Amino acid sequence: MTLSDIRAKVEAGQRLSFDDGLFLENQVDLFTLGELANLVRERKNGNVAYYNVNTHLNATNVCVYRCVFCAFRADLKSEKGYVMPDEQILHRAKEAQERGATELHIVGGLHHQLPYEWYLNVVRIVHQHYPRLHLKAYTAVEWDWFARLTGRPTKDILAEFKDAGLGSLPGGGAEIFHPEVRDIICEHKADTDAWLRIHREAHELGLRSNATMLYGHIEKPLHRIDHLCKLRELQDETGGFQTLIPLAFHPDNTKLGIDHKIQKPSAITDLRMIAISRLMLDNFPHIKAYWIMLGIPTAQLALSYGADDIDGTVVHEKIYHDAGSDTPQELTVAQLRRLIEEAGRVPVERDTLYHEVIRSERDWQTGRQLALPVVAV
Ligand code: V47
Ligand code: SF4
Hints:
TIM Barrel, alpha/beta, 44% helix, disordered C terminus
């Protein structure tokens, strides 16, 4: 295999193999990766870069699990631990609505004592009071926890939440699927089969979802390519994934960072991950450069290395800021648009399901569907 073979495949829109992926990882320089990934990116999404107006809600940080990469979690009795009362949750949703947000991104810890009904209630009350907010809620790890709490199948639980107002699933909890890594960084929580099964079930129920990959710690190129191939396989089956968000490990305040003396990945690694993800995931419509995690300059560059989305205004972010991120908590729409334009792309506001948002001030309407997934659910 040579670079020209891979280039020919990319130009012809053909799928890259696992071995092609390893070749990209081990033998191809950043600029060539960027050139090839940009070809795919522009073929799929033209010159557009998407953003959305959203807010995060982490209703509790208390967590029974102890993923060694996580600086967000708190022990049950720790001073750092919190559980938001309903009033605070509704206040956060009200604030989001008043700012013109179209989406609330809801994830958190798996609390030792809170019952299943508490998590359901979060979605139910927010949806009842603010039905226009799309609720992108709970990772596969949380759905797996709800099944453990109730003894019920995850698909039933997803269906119950959908009736209560759940709009889609975020991509968290995927980390690295390969057991050589997963067994070290988060051996106790939902395993790979569970993560993939839950996303399959969500897609079967007509819910769309995102996927993530946590890189820049103890994983090797083969683990990352294996991860991407597993996601691609499920997407072939269901077509329900919208975007992959490659997540750079932030080591501050984490056991993994301290034990393995890990430095935050460099901008070069970040851009390589974005480009390789774009090249391997031929059936994912979007690749997201999450600005909170990458920092603004790298997120801007990523828009020329395969990414077509930079996530949203965000406002209240804890997972990365607890782990040492020095990005701001919030970007205004004007700032998001300017950073996209500066990168030479055309900013387009999207809703969670990639419909265009047509806005006059804080009022908004949903427009046409943008860049659909390749396979219909
Ligand atoms: O699953 C936790 C990661 C994820 C650290 O779906 C860390 O649109 C780096 O999934 N360093 C949660 N990463 C965040 C997430 C996400 C973010 C933005 C958009 C979407 C979406 C999803 O954060 C976790 C884990 O992989 N994470 N701690 C850390 N120290
Ligand atoms: Fe808990 Fe999620 Fe942190 Fe793991 S990553 S310790 S499941 S909050």
